[in-house]
Hints:
eight-stranded antiparallel sheet; Jelly Rolls; alpha+beta; 50 strands; Beta-galactosidase, Chain A, domain 5; nine-stranded antiparallel sheet; 792 residues
Amino acid sequence: MFLHYVTGVLCCALVSSVLFADAVLETKDFRAAVDERGRVNSFFDRANSVEYLARDQQRALLRVRVDGRFVSPSKMTWDGGKGSMRLVFEGVGVEAQVRAVAKPTHVVFELVGLTPNGKADVLEWGPLPTTIKDTVGEFVGVVRNKDYAIGLQGLNPKTLGGFFPNEEGRDTTRGQTAKATEWGSTLQAYSIDRSRPRKISAWGENFPNMPVPPIKGETLIGSKITLFGCAAKEALKRIGEIEQAEGLPHPVFDGVWVKMSRQAGRPYLIASFTERTVDEMLRYAKRANLATLYHPGPFKSWGHFELKRGFFPHGVEGMKQCVAKARKLGIRIGVHTLTNFINTNDPYVTPVPDQRLAKTGSSRLVTDIDDKATEIPVASPEYFDNSKANWLRTVMIGEELIRYGPVSKGSPARLKECQRGAFGTKAAPHKKGDAVAKLLDHPYKVFFPNYEMQHEIAIRLAKLFDETGISHFDFDGHEGCWATGQGDFASEMFAKVFYDHLKRPVHNGSSNSNHFYWHINTVLNWGEPWYAGFRASQADYRFNNQPLLKRNYLPGMLGWFAMRRETTLADIEWMLARCAGYDAGFALASDIRTLQNNPQTGQILDAIREWDHARQAAAFSEGQRKRLRDPEREFHLEKTGDGKWKLYPYTLSKPFVCEQRVRQPGEPTATQWDLVNPDETQPLSFNLIVEGKQGSIRDMTLEIDSHIRLDVPAELEAGQTLVCDGTQTVRIYDAKGRQTKAITLKQKVPQLSRGPHRVEASAEFTGEPPPRVVVRFKTRGKAELVSKSSRR
């Protein structure tokens, strides 16, 4: 089989050199051509005889930067027998040698030579223009319409997806390996010569003029891409074939490539546990059929990742026992860290700081100082007086860390109010001329490794996972790798080094959507619960991310949601309906006390299990999924049998308004509403919002059909919401959707029969101007039957 494969490749290249004046490279369903000027001349769908190249656009296969300016080739010569392409950049005296090979599924281009050595410092593949614009996967690098897909893949971490963005190679967009245009789309990648010392603005504008040491051998040579084209429905499968053919990361779980596994997007539980409490937490996770029990803070410090003895008295052995218990239940154990962030209590910092901690720059002592000096004279204040990004204000001299206050003007500059022997290091005398290095820090009050040391951290993390069996974590804070000055290349390399040193792949996520990392990544799970109430925290952000994930072939994930003691079943089902609508998973952040004390914990866990079973079983129709995506709608799901459920939709009435009314003495001030219950008889349920900038309402009364009365014994301020869910407990929420109070009514909530009703509403108003009350009634509708689909 191997001989047949190689022979096919060579024959294809030979035929191309004989039949075409251009360099023509054909796969079984795609043809790419490069003309005598080094321009891409065709992106051809062989099966349907359709040309997808946008010819009127810039289409150089390869561009190089010389003296700060990008130039395109002026001439190309092609030796099809050797698969060798020579690109000449006449205006700047540069020549590039590219190896081009057509394989059955894809075409590979690799820079194998560049002369004269070191003249070009940046390389761009493309931008390569296509006429396809229906779906553009910006970080996976695939564009597609209903019939055909064309993709570009960087084949190593040095080949970064997108346009060259800046000197550090740091792209803050969601990705630009593929980019939509008004006429179609472009595909592009780039590499930077990192083998030379540089001074750049690192991490954006945070650390200007930062010296970045060279990485030996990390030149432009070896920059490598693949292009492919195939039927649109085959595109994801094709990427998997390319991964295997080119030695890219190809994580497989339970025999299934992660990008095609329905298991990848399963919900998981984020909650602390100990060796003592892990059994109880696993029972909660099992009841809800959650994929992972994920510890949010198991480490004594980031950097060396020693487990906290308070959680794991037996250290690694204790964690291994937790993993074994979880594995028996079919549950993963996960842990959270912040990629390459280093706490100040970590052995990399104290008692002897590692010389490989990342530095923004340095100066020299202008005089000797003893171990008690509180002012340190330096030759230049450049790196120390950074008011924009300087949270720990720490310098390293020898093996001592020193924190400092103001930086004096004049010559020499002085670091004043110094705290000697900071972070448990030892104060010592230092000599004139000794280096004073400013450590790079962060608002989280942490330090970072340089490029060399971050590899060590990635390897240490991988070894811990192998030793304990931990199988889920996130590259949260992935952007911390920018502290090396190597931009996205450093982020890609951290993930790759970690992956390469694992004995088996682990489920992982990230805060960044890097192109090469896509091959390693399991899910991206953006959305945090800390900024508002359950339904309000980053809601639009979560929903808007779902199309982005879909067009980049990643599972839908709606982010983290916090289950608190006051979280209700209705809240959870609001989230679960969105998950079903978007076919998305989520992470539930909670803790053992909440799970023990929330009165609806059992119902909530059961609901999570059943909603996700129905989602995984494709039980919902497309019409139902469209309605389930609407955040204004609410639903309830009940299991009725194996693979069968009832979906109950809720109907929200139009908004009814009650405002302060001025009448003559004795005249009723109530506002009258005509309400229709379209559903069966059920307890009265409503949401009441106090709209306005100031003031309050109190003693709200609802009277139905002149004989049923409900009193709400609460004062509500402008911006607050009151929710009555048909029980005697009403809940009050602040303007950000956070529950502030729960009140038990003295009376039972009245039943609302089917049909029309007259409602009279009254309240006392305060404020100038006073707020107004807006009420929407909610009724549960007729059940819709849903069942397991054969589509999965």
